[in-house]
């Protein structure tokens, strides 16, 4: 309580959940990059072996797009860490939904292109995105943050 009887407001940058959210973002980023990177390498090699140079090009483009879109979620999480816990959750869920919309847009834009192999592009995009999301989930679980801290 302050001197006038009103409750003391903790500044958002010093709220107890900020440290926890930033720790979660770090763990999630670490595991997402590891798993997403591993899936990326496998996808590029398999695409090059099965479909040749056009498959490798499609796979590389898919990897770049998937990793960039995946990183958006972590950036949003870090940027909203000082917001209220509900604000962090809204940001995280919005970025998660936005990822799928952007992936759909890229799949539709590059549908039917002759610049690279469409199948390797689509499968790589799907596999790397799934790997990234799985890495985020693994990082979240391994961070072992009690729900009370959030």
Structure, described:
It is a single chain. This protein has 150 residues and is mainly alpha-helical. The protein has one domain (16-144). It has helices at 16-79, 85-109, 118-143. Helix 1 runs parallel beside helix 2 (85-109). The chain is elongated, with a radius of gyration of 19 Å.
Give the topology, please.
Blueprint: H1 16-79, H2 85-109, H3 118-143
Helix pairs in contact: 1-2, 1-3
Protein name: ATP synthase protein I
Transmembrane segments: 31-50, 56-76, 88-109, 121-141
Organism: Pseudonocardia asaccharolytica DSM 44247 = NBRC 16224
How would you classify the helix and strand content by structural class? Answer: mainly alpha
Secondary-structure element sequence? HHH
> Mean of residue pLDDT?
84
Low-confidence stretches: none
Shape: elongated
- Sheet with the most strands, sense and barrel status: none
Helical amount: over 70%
Beta-strand percent range: under 5%
- How many distinct domains? 1
Structure summary:
This protein has about 150 residues and is mainly alpha-helical. It contains 3 helices and no strands.
């Amino acid at each position: 309580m302050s001197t006038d009887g009103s409750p003391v407001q903790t500044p958002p940058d010093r709220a107890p959940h900020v440290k926890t959210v930033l720790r979660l973002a770090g763990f999630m980023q670490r595991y997402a990059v590891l798993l997403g990177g591993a899936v990326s390498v496998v996808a590029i090699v398999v695409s090059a072996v099965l479909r040749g140079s056009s498959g490798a090009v499609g796979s590389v483009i898919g990897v770049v797009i998937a990793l960039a879109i995946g990183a958006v979620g972590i950036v949003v999480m870090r940027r909203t860490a000082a917001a209220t816990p509900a604000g962090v959750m809204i940001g995280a869920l919005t970025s998660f939904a936005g990822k799928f919309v952007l992936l759909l847009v890229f799949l539709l834009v590059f549908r039917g292109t002759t610049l690279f192999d469409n199948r390797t592009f689509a499968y790589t995009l799907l596999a790397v995105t799934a790997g990234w999301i799985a890495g985020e989930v693994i990082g979240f679980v391994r961070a072992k943050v009690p729900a009370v801290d959030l």
